[in-house]
Design goal:
With 147 residues, this protein is of the alpha+beta class. The protein has helices at residues 5-10, 41-57, 129-134; strands at residues 13-18, 21-27, 64-75, 82-92, 96-104, 110-122.
Length: 147
């Protein structure tokens, strides 16, 4: 999975991401639980976001990532054990991907359903690289709608 300190700390593991389909697992730990000792809704939503985003990214070229534009999650029942999220691209344009996914727990129970829209973007520079990124190969070029 691409480098993400937050996702690394969460403990999510990418099993596959190719051809618009992804699968991500998360063995639940005590700090993933809410006060009722089931998966916290924010953990479930994060896992759905990662699965959908990775499905979208699997159709992108090198140096291109995605950002979440909007996402909706329906919670069906509490998650326990290990959560397994699958994502799938339903439609892709040159700048956006519309995805769906679901999360099931280690017993196979249907935990959540997610729908999301993701925008394709080139990797943004940070720190000193920002100045170099702002330079255009053609100084006379006019910004496009996404610039």
């Amino acid at each position: 999975m691409p480098e993400s300190p937050f996702i690394d700390r969460l403990g999510a593991q990418l099993l596959r991401a190719a051809d618009g389909v992804s699968e991500v697992v998360l063995p639940l730990q005590p700090d993933h639980m809410n006060t009722w000792d089931v998966a916290h809704g924010g953990v479930t939503m994060t896992l759905a976001d990662v699965a959908l985003a990775m499905a979208a990214r699997s159709l992108a070229g090198d140096g291109v990532g995605v950002v979440t534009v909007e996402m909706k999650v329906n919670f069906m029942q509490p998650g326990r054990g290990e959560l397994r999220a699958t994502g799938r691209v339903l439609h892709r344009s040159t700048t956006m991907a519309y995805c769906e996914g679901e999360i099931r727990d280690s017993e196979g129970h249907f935990v959540a359903k997610a729908l999301g829209t993701f925008k394709y973007m080139r990797r943004l520079a940070v720190g000193r690289d920002v100045r170099r990124q702002r330079l255009r190969s053609d100084p006379a070029a006019k910004p496009g709608p996404s610039d």
